[in-house]
Design brief:
Largest sheet: 2 strands, antiparallel
Helix content: 55-70%
Structural class: mainly alpha
Strand content: under 5%
Order of helices and strands: HEHHHHHHHHHHHHHHHHHHHHHHE
Distance between the termini: 40 Å
Number of strands: 2
Shape: globular
Length: 449
């Protein structure tokens, strides 16, 4: 066994110990005085072993990806690979969700008292509701919004309102929307890795992006939808700064970044990932698309502002609302590190090992050399992209605005970490570990999202 593999296994073991420590400490806190407000710390879930229709389908998808994923990723034409990754991500997410059954796993998820579909009828006049939106954020205000509506800009809720208007109303259509759109994030990350690092690394990352434990929470959570929108914003930016139709891709990137800011306040931290993309872009082209990016970016904020929604006022009210609820009770001293244990369960042991190798890549090949001669250092460039996503995740962690439930809240950041699987040899063994973790989590726990 070589030294690198031993280090990989040591990193995976350390991550497992972190999860164990978070679970044991969380149980102790709950027994003494439950301030965590989660059923199975550190996850928002309850212990409930169960099976469902997906029990028979999910292992088949996993076996197929483990057996044929690396080979197909290496040989398929590029466009075919993107559609295959998207389709297989959908299959994996749907099959995991169906372990909980169609009703609870998909159709009911977005209809609970916390969720967006509870307020569809209050948006019969969208402009009027947007003008009045901030008056219902705080607990104690008349007809205050449910937690997820109050906790996000109205772009998220308006999405489901518009689906309802075109005849796709109800929890089932909302769940299908989130899974189908969310699965497209894998293709966006592949595009980004290809243009900023290399096609070889993108192909090696593909099976890890598809067979991710994160799919447990991608189906069904609106954060999966947010993750895809944000990922494509980054992908179009990567295309723009490397000279791929910079006007069109820059404008598309800006539009999606603007939408991202109105889906989730926390995704403003995507500015760190965008900064990493600009740094990795072509030195002679990285600034040229920025006017088009900025022109696209102002569109969505302008529309919502003209319709009467004040983003900044809403954000400050959200902070107050956050501390009115469970966020004011959950201890920062526990969650600041237990959140990272949640992330381990989302990204899996393969990603932990890949991140260890990613951290070593900039050391082996200087950052300046990487930026000056990109063709000579694709692994370092991928490492910098992944580390930019990790930096955004850590910023969210230290902010104190993400205490618990980060297995879904941080999906938009965590999905980028999965690309670190490209650094790993023996992909089938690592993919098996990823699939086993996802299947165990979904069969042993009933997750809240």
């Amino acid at each position: 066994m070589n030294r690198d593999l031993l280090r990989d296994l040591a990193a995976a073991l350390a991550a497992a110990l972190l999860v164990t420590a978070a679970a044991l400490t969380g149980i102790a806190i709950k027994r003494e005085h439950d301030t965590l407000h989660v059923g199975w710390p550190p996850l928002y879930a309850v212990w409930e072993p169960h099976v469902g229709p997906g029990t028979f389908v999910a292992p088949v998808v996993a076996i197929a990806v483990v057996a044929y994923g690396p080979l197909l990723a290496a040989r398929l034409p590029w466009r075919a690979l993107l559609f295959t990754a998207w389709g297989t991500s959908m299959a994996w997410t749907f099959s995991l969700a169906l372990i909980d059954g169609w009703h609870w796993g998909i159709a009911r998820r977005l209809t609970t008292a916390y969720e967006y579909l509870q307020v569809i009828d209050r948006f019969h006049d969208i402009p009027d509701t947007l003008r009045d939106f901030t008056n219902h954020i705080l607990i104690g205000s008349p007809d205050h919004w449910p937690p997820h509506v109050a906790g996000h800009p109205p772009g998220a809720t308006v999405t489901f309102v518009l689906l309802d208007r075109i005849g796709l109303g109800g929890g089932a259509w909302a769940g299908v929307w989130c899974i189908v759109v969310g699965a497209a994030a894998s293709a966006a990350i592949l595009v980004t890795v290809r243009v900023l690092a290399s096609e070889t690394l993108a192909r090696r990352a593909a099976p890890f992006l598809v067979l991710a434990p994160a799919a447990v929470w991608m189906g069904t959570s609106a954060d999966g939808y947010f993750a895809a929108v944000a990922a494509w914003a980054v992908a179009f930016l990567a295309l723009a700064v490397t000279g791929h139709r910079p006007r069109a891709t820059g404008l598309a990137s800006g539009l999606l970044f603007g939408l991202t800011a109105y889906l989730s306040y926390g995704l403003t931290l995507y500015a760190l990932i965008a900064g990493g993309v600009l740094l990795l872009g072509s030195r002679s082209r990285r600034l040229r698309p920025l006017p088009y990016v900025l022109a696209g970016f102002v569109v969505v904020p302008a529309v919502f502002t003209l319709l009467g929604f004040n983003w900044w006022e809403a954000y400050h009210l959200l902070v107050e609302r956050y501390y009115q609820g469970a966020g004011g009770l959950r201890p920062y001293g526990y969650w600041v590190w237990a959140n990272l244990a949640c992330t381990v369960l989302v990204v899996g042991p393969a990603t932990v090992a890949g991140l260890r190798r990613a951290g070593a890549a900039p050391v082996r090949k200087g950052v300046r050399v990487c930026l000056r001669t990109p063709a000579d250092a694709p692994e370092t460039r991928l490492a910098l992209l992944v580390l930019a996503a990790l930096l955004a995740l850590l910023a969210a962690d230290f902010s104190g605005m993400s205490k618990a439930e980060t297995e879904r809240i941080w999906l938009p950041f965590a999905l980028w970490l999965l690309a670190a699987g490209a650094f790993l040899p023996r992909p089938r063994a690592w993919l098996t570990a990823q699939a086993a973790l996802a299947l165990l989590l979904n069969h042993l726990l009933l997750t809240g999202w």
